[in-house]
Sequence to fold (251 residues):
Amino acid sequence: MSDFFESGKGSSPVNSPQNLPQTESTNSESKDSELKGKPPSKNEDFDGPLILVETAFLASTASLIWLVNYYFPMGPLLRIFFPVPIALIYLRWGQRSAWMGALVSGLLLSVLMGPTRSILFVIPFGFLSVLLGGLWRGGASWLTSISLGTVVGSFGFFFRFWLLSLLLGEDLWLYITSQATEIVEWMFVKLGVLAVPSLGLVQAIAVGMIVINNIIYLFVVHLVALLLLDRLGNPIPRPPNWVQVLINYED
Fold:
């Protein structure tokens, strides 16, 4: 009897060495399943709230700059920073967050200043901000970003004049035409040209002045973004060599 029980203990499948690899394999499989189904890291958990907070903060910053510049105009000083906050959202968090920032800025200005002034911010500066952010994040050259930005800015200028003319019941383009006529007549007098400028020439010069103004504005915005965003850790594409020499800028 004792021999029988001893032989039974020796043949127990629990202590059998043949089953050890199976237990090890099952343990490894359970570990793999745990690794595959593990929750996201802490950084991933905090990305969502961080995106919301930064988007809301930068959108309110863009609205505040527009609000202060409207009631306390400081010339072109604050106007330079209109596209920068939302473009920074694009550089940090991508296209969706940038559009959300532009939308939040428009809604906030609509509450504070009314829908008309809110529209004047969104068009062109909201669209311009997203455009510049996308081009900067994609590594586009300054020539490309300034050219496309000039198109958006010029469209926004004509849209603003159309909307204000519609609200005021007057054609504000006639005011621009009269100002351009005076400039052309002055140039003709200085050049000794004895002719009356035609309406088409005056309007072409007026459009050219608007385009040149937007080119200069976009160039200054790029300079400000270059100096500011580099220090914030979100650099934009490098300027041409002659610009780096002109401003004595080094990476």
